[in-house]
Specification:
GO terms for molecular function: methyltransferase activity. With 264 residues, the chain is of the alpha/beta class. It contains 10 helices and 8 strands. The protein has helices at 6-13, 44-52, 64-70, 108-118, 140-156, 167-173, 196-207, 209-212, 215-221, 226-245; strands spanning 34-38, 56-61, 76-80, 93-99, 119-128, 134-137, 177-190, 251-263. Strands 1, 2, 3, 4, 5, 6, 7 and 8 form an 8-stranded mixed sheet that branches.
Length: 264
């Protein structure tokens, strides 16, 4: 199972759903009584569901460390479990949802079938289209290097991290009728004043640590040597750190998320 850190989820989810929640309209959150968020991690999305509804909100994850963070929230019930074998009876929830889970699973269709089993009404997914991410930065080499590394990652990674408009096919196979498909653009800005996560992320670029986490997938996907890319990456990271010290550094990233809702 692909692992994530608490700080990674905090940094990458920062501001998500804060600007607009219109893409969640098909969830009918006002009308829900029991919601399940599968692969909830630290509960970044589960908290949005709890804020927008009066439902009983349950978060499930296979990573107990992340789950313990979600469990700290008074309106979230955290349960350990696997997305392809959920520890709930048939029809236990009237909305079963996940955010950024399917792209990490070897068999996303099996998870959707399981969601359909434990839902009595709606099933929904919010999945990033990692092939359509856009980056801009005051460090010029960051834009081209991130593009090369992202393309290599997409090529080398063992799961499909850019499901995009193929998600509805999984819904069809699970016998779910599509209620709606929408797109949400998550914009992330790094600018002064930088917070702790920005500083950590820059340091991880400079040391190569961030890249090393994906070394195996990158080695499979790159058509040049990993060592050479890593050297250029670290040089770019040192420039990011330098610009941060003089408060010149700015970075903007847009990640499109496809929101698919279906009915049992
Ligand atoms: C990218 S994170 C997304 C977390 C959260 N949904 C969010 O958007 O912030 C993917 C999450 O799925 C969990 N996960 C991966 N495979 C899983 C599985 N088979 N069953 C349950 N959780 C799983 C990971 O532990 C991680 O918390």
């Amino acid at each position: 199972m692909r692992r994530f850190s608490e700080s990674y989820l905090r940094r990458t989810r920062r501001g998500m759903w804060a600007d607009s929640r219109a893409a969640l309209a098909d969830f009918d959150l006002d009308g829900r009584t029991r919601i399940l968020d599968v692969g909830c991690g630290t509960g970044e999305f589960t908290r949005v569901l709890a804020e927008e509804s009066d439902a009983r909100v349950v978060g499930v994850d296979a990573d107990l460390e992340l789950l313990s963070v979600a469990d700290e929230h008074p309106d979230i019930e955290a349960v350990a479990g696997d997305a392809t074998g959920l520890p709930f009876a048939d029809g236990s929830f009237d909305l079963v949802v996940c955010q950024a889970l399917l792209v990490n699973l070897p068999d996303p269709a099996a998870a959707i079938s399981e969601f359909a089993r434990v839902s009595s009404d709606l099933v929904a997914t919010v999945e990033p289209d990692n092939a359509a991410v856009g980056v801009d930065s005051t460090v010029e080499s960051e834009v081209s290097l991130e593009k090369r590394v992202r393309e290599a990652f997409l090529h080398g990674v063992s799961t499909d991290v850019a499901l995009g408009d193929r998600v509805p096919a999984f819904f069809d196979s699970a016998g779910l009728d599509i209620v709606g498909t929408r797109r949400y653009h998550h914009q992330k800005l790094t600018e002064p004043p930088y917070d702790e996560d920005d500083v950590r992320s820059a340091a991880q670029k400079a040391t190569g640590e961030g890249l090393d986490r994906h070394e195996r997938d990158l080695r499979r996907g790159l058509d040049e040597s990993y060592e050479s890319v890593r050297r250029q990456w670290r040089q770019m990271g040192r420039e990011v750190v330098r610009q941060m010290k003089s408060e010149e550094y700015r970075r903007a990233e847009v990640v499109p998320f496809d929101v698919t809702t279906g009915q049992v």
